[in-house]
Amino acid sequence: MNGSNNDTEQNSSEVGWYSPTITKSIEAIHFTVDPQTEMTLGAAKAFNAVNYLMQVKAHASRLSPAEYNEQLGDGAVILKTKSSEFMTLIGCGSRNFEYLKKLINELGKMRISWDNEATGSDVEAGFFNMFSSGSIRNNEVVLVIPPHTRNLLITEKPVAVIDFITLHTKINSKYGMAINDIIQQQMYNHDQQTKTFIMEDTVLRNALKIKFVEVDGIRKYSYKEPKELQRKVLDVAIADYNQAELDFIVKCEGYKKSLGVIYWTFAVESRAESLRKLLIAEMSNDILDASGALMEFKVADFKRKQLLADITDEYSLQYLLYCIKLTKEAKNVANKAAYLVSIHDNNKEVFSEIWEVKKTEMEAERRRRAEGHRAFIEMQKAEFKKRFIKNFSTRIAEQYNSHKQFPADFSVALEEHCRSLGKNLNAHEFLKALKSSEELDFASPVFGGFCAKWVEENCRADLEHYVKNQTIQLPD
Fold first, then answer.
1. What per-residue confidence (pLDDT) applies to 16?
2. Which of 79, 170, 182, 194 is least surrounded by CB atoms within 10 angstroms?
3. Are residues 146 and 195 in the same domain?
4. Cα–Cα distance between 318 and 314 in angstroms, integer?
């Protein structure tokens, strides 16, 4: 079940190189699915959708992937998106809530391991739950994403760029999805129109997410015989991929065995005269908006695709959005499709005159959004810091109230702090409470203020560790 229905018409017709893209690392392509679970077609699409949503957040922050991950710390993050948007991203009908519910349950079972395929001291590997939790509530999809998955999605080391909207609307099998990732990795930064590459059998099976069982530490994959793998998986997946008419034409040229190891050979040929141009991820939402507006205006298919194909940079995208805005604002226009095309053909000089001002305004708006994005996260971290200090104050006060004493180094520093306050009434009352062994009010501003200072000076590592491992709510 792929969850598609008539509601996917807009997406399935709006495909091509101008679609939003995501980047993937080696680890995001070659992770291993826990043998007790299965990477379904729906789960693969959902993984791409979450990848996109997370990368949009990262781009909005205007930080590098490493800086963004550092700001978020070592805790989980909460990602919220409208159910309708999530279903659009996975190529599912906007009213197919039963499928979405089934998919969320599938994601909850996903456990994966990953390996960067390095050797020696450069080896990086891990095994974890893909998501901490997920829910559908109030027309929102809410996913709690652990740091391992986040680092898998937001990477400094991309090895593939995936046109996932096109993929979700044209590929009908989970193996076809996996073949696409493999091909995109092989052709990434490859400046020739053709390429032949070889993959070792177990690496190929792992990338395809073939199910396996472990016996004495050795993986026993389904489709044990190479001929069976080719007939039931590779031939079907490659046919699915080629029929989708994506960037490349792929052919499996068979396998050979050398020194007990099986190697597969694939030939790839580009469909285009030049390599596909990629738009930066932060433009993806604007491209989707433009695509939706052209559908709304009922622009003919061939002209719609031409207008979108003319987008080669930010200027051309903003010009199309400018024309769309004028069309929406136009009064008493019966044929908005013709009106839009006419504006697009005849307003380039007018737009050029306002472009520099608009570009400056856009840059200022991006800076404002990025600052707001970072401030939203820092505000949460400040609250986590307050919580840590309050919890610390509470524990110290409870210890004093139970045993009538503080830890030695804390007690000495506290007495010095109180003496430094001189005739401050709160300080005198506080010292009197200590001498008479009355219960300590840990909410006292004197005590609370001192605890904050004490934590900053003496518990910095614990404080930073606590803040860094809290769950962060991502901005809308």
1. 36
2. 194
3. no
4. 6
